[in-house]
Amino acid sequence: FIAGEFSTFNVNITQAFLRQAVRFSLQLSEIRHSLDEDFRGSCVRSRSDHLPYILHNETGSSLRFTTATDEVLEARSMQRKSTAKWYQTAADASTTFEFPTKRLTIAENSEEIHQLIVRVDGWDEISPVNVDAVGTYFRLARCSTSRVADSNFGINVRLVIVVTMDKNGRKVVTIRSALTVINHLLDPILLILTCGSSKVPETSIIRVDPKKTLHVPLKFASASMAVKPDGWNCSKTHEVKWQEAKSAGERINKLLKFDIFDICYW
């Protein structure tokens, strides 16, 4: 049906039509307000998919990471220098980052995933890790060839990448070592970590408060470990041979005795 410029449009004005028109006119401002609220709400909800990520560095060393995993892998396969942008994060610091917009708007590609490549200072970059799904992931970090001569860095270590979601819906990526110490005592303890050669050892003394958890710095992930209670005027330490646990889920219990003047601390 095509109407001409001067065509006549016949309308029957009924009492029901007038009542509907009056009711709509009275409710027009309310309808407009409701539409505005729905529109703003939909805009806010759609923005939640593009919230920035947060990366926590708990390795005890500075690290760098990149979201341009395809570029890094392609450059490696073609043996050329990568043009990927790397983000620097100091030890015990956090960095907010986002994936490129072009990756977020490709709705037709259902296989599009968000990945990171991480490089901790002293170790080579790890294989890509997916940060889309909440979970715990493990990657092997090989000792950097530039640090092989340094006995404190001449080891391969396991990295733990934990992906969680905060109350605002943002993904939180925490990177740490695979060695964890939990103090179940009612008193603080001193943890003595020693790594390196016997000629030039490196030692770190860390205080662990009661009921607290310590993620051992990556540099000491294979270190020898000794422990003693803090605040008890105890000079002697006891070695904890944590390497004796060889298989997953294996538990080794040992009772340690500290002689403190005329009392004993077990």
UniProtKB/TrEMBL annotation:
Residues 108-233 form the Vacuolar protein sorting-associated protein 13 VPS13 adaptor binding domain. It comes from the Eukaryota. Coiled coil: none annotated. GO terms for biological process: mitochondrion organization; protein retention in Golgi apparatus; protein targeting to vacuole. InterPro entries: VPS13, VPS13_VAB. PANTHER family: INTERMEMBRANE LIPID TRANSFER PROTEIN VPS13D, VACUOLAR PROTEIN SORTING-ASSOCIATED PROTEIN VPS13. This is Polyprotein. It comes from Brugia pahangi. The lineage of its organism: Eukaryota, Metazoa, Ecdysozoa, Nematoda, Chromadorea.
